[in-house]
Amino acid sequence: MARITRRRPSSGAATVTTTVEPPPAAEDAAGLPDQPDSLLAEPAAETSVAAATPVASTPVASAPVAVALDVRGLRKVYTGHGRITEAIEHLTFTVDRGQFLCLVGPSGAGKTTLLRCVAGLIEPTAGEVLLDGARVTSPPPGMGVVFQEYGRSLFPWMTVRQNVERPLIEKGMKKAERREAVEEALAAVGLSDSGDAHPWQLSGGMQQRVAIARAVAYRPSIFLMDEPFAAVDAQTRAELEDLVRSLWRRLGVTVLFITHDIDEAVYLGERVLVLSNRPTVVLADVTVDLPADRDQLTTRSDRRFAELRAQVYELIQQAKAGHRPQPA
């Protein structure tokens, strides 16, 4: 795996209640059956990713303390309908505690499959995922997941406040503590005045804020975000990008953020992990050496931003052309 780092002396460094469907038969790769981007499509079969039983995670003593997420030799093969599809060939990478890692790659590269393996929603064919030193075998505690389709991730018959509160009830929080956590989360995403509204009364951007607030209220140690802003307009997207980055810096959580948008990956992340075409391997690990304080105008106008964007864009084109890193 190649690590590409360029630095300029003037630059600085930088849960969610889900409804878990049965494991999909395939992922987002071309030629495979479609599957929903949100696992919250059927609210009736409700469970909580953050509140899942800790018994499913097995401690691994050798995991480094500073590493929040450790993906080791992950491989995923789908079989069925008389065919075998290798979605992920081999993925190995780590995310330090409190780091913001963006993941990009060509369409069909297995990004969503990777996220579902990390979330414990599907089982890898080989390899393992460690979260805070524990092997992930089912949805672990302390994880917040925000999916792309906000309309399918919220319960339409519940108010905004009730949607945010739901995973806290599953967690067993006392009522007073729940109320405080919900109000803090709504304030953090700018929805203090919308608690009594229903999701269908809100715009798309506000609905996604509700989904983010629900993750924040649970106070997870890691956020997994699967193209959460893909379905909103450009102005709303910019606002939500700044919101997520602000929350990340305030809460100190680890973030694994999947996106197709190269500019978004460079703007948000401290690192950008570029994946190859299917079957997936890590093509490059790019360090984003932009200042920690970023804004949509100044940062995107910076010459270093343009250089990093061009670098990641070139890597994506190489991935589409079938380029793969040379074996060590």
Largest sheet: 12 strands, mixed
CATH topology: Rossmann fold
Distance between the termini: 8 Å
Helix content: 25-40%
* Number of structural domains: 1
Please write the string of helix (H) and strand (E) elements.
EEEEEEEHEEEHHHHEHEHEEHH
Overall structural class, as computed from helix and strand content, comes to alpha/beta
From the alpha-carbon coordinates, what is the Rg to the nearest angstrom? 19 Å
Low-confidence runs? 1-58
CATH architecture: 3-Layer(aba) Sandwich
Question: What portion of the residues fall into strands of 2 or more residues?
Answer: 15-25%
What is the CATH class?
Alpha Beta
Number of helices: 9
Mean pLDDT: 80
What is the fourth-level CATH superfamily? P-loop containing nucleotide triphosphate hydrolases
Cα shape: globular
Q: Give the number of DSSP strands.
A: 14
Oligomer: single chain
Describe the structure.
With 328 residues, the chain is an alpha/beta fold. The chain has a single domain (10-27, 34-320), classed as Rossmann fold. Helix content is 31%, strand content 23%. The chain has helices at 111-118, 150-153, 160-171, 175-188, 204-218, 234-251, 262-268, 296-301, 303-320, and strands at 3-4, 17-18, 47-48, 58-59, 67-80, 83-96, 100-104, 126-131, 134-135, 143-146, 222-226, 254-258, 271-275, 280-287. Strand 5 and strand 6 (83-96) form a beta hairpin. Helix 3 (160-171) crosses helix 4 and helix 4 packs across helix 5 (204-218). The longest helix is centred in the last third of the chain and has 18 residues, at 234-251. It is globular and about 55 Å long. Residues 1-58 have low confidence and may be disordered.
